[in-house]
Amino acid sequence: VQLQASGGGLVQAGGSLRLSCAASERTGGSYAMGWFRQAPGKEREFVATVRYSGTTYYADSVKGRFTISRDNAKNTVYLQMNSLKPEDTAVYYCALGRGVIMSNLRNVAAYDYWGQGTLVTVSS
To answer: DSSP for 77-104?
Structure first.
């Protein structure tokens, strides 16, 4: 399975961006799709994930500003980012995991496939 992310760019603080990530093929069974981000010099961190059922989970730092959604027919996950802040600047990675459960959904290791990353830069 290959994941192709798109939608990153440069935006001013307070602005919005929408990221998309399409999986190259349908995977068997239910799976979660999520977004992580990595800022320069920092570890990759959880942003949001959506389970096959549509249940969503967010990092506290983005709750209320970001919305994750998915279209199972298109094998695609989206991340709508509003009220962006300079501290949101990072490379954003989409991920797909078959074994994602409540206890591990924020862990990088829970996800089996990763996209190439798309850069989001928020200027102050």
So the answer is: EEEEE-S--GGG-EEEEEEEESS--TTT
- In angstroms, the CA 6 to CA 78 distance is 10
pLDDT tens, residue by residue, 100-113: 998 999 999 999 99
H and E: helices and strands count for the chain = 0, 11
**By the 8 A CB rule, do 66 and 58 touch?**
yes
Which stretches within 1-124 are classed as H helix? none
Distance CA 16, CA 62 (A): 13
Using alpha carbons, select from 41, 47, 32 the residue that is nearest to residue 84. 47
- Give the model confidence (pLDDT) of 51-66 as tens digits: 988 999 999 999 999 9
